[in-house]
Amino acid sequence: MTAETAAMLPALTIVLAAALWAIQAVGVQLECVDAVRAAARAAARGEPLDRVGDYVRSATRPGAQVIVSRDGERTTVNVSVEVRPAWGSSLPAVRVSASAVADTES
Known about the structure:
The structure is a single chain. By secondary structure, the chain is an alpha+beta fold. It has one domain (2-103). It is built from two helices and three strands. It has helices spanning 2-45, 49-59; strands spanning 65-70, 74-83, 94-103. The protein has a three-stranded antiparallel β-sheet, covered by helices on one side. Helix 1 runs antiparallel to helix 2 (49-59).
């Protein structure tokens, strides 16, 4: 039984690492969704677009790409973040994005 456990331990470690990375990506996704929802409401109320973009960057990860646009009817906020596992910086990143649309107030 000890030999089987020793043989399975590397596989279990890899599965655990992948699960933790997935949980991290889901957490970043939720941060992005919350940030763009609040930012779209603020931009629709008339907040300056630069300030809205700064708010989204401060509420998400430092390398977030934020696009805020407003026209006469709709305000749109998009954010995109690359997520890398903390334990494997050489691994490819997963891109997480979120967007929100609100009716522009007059």
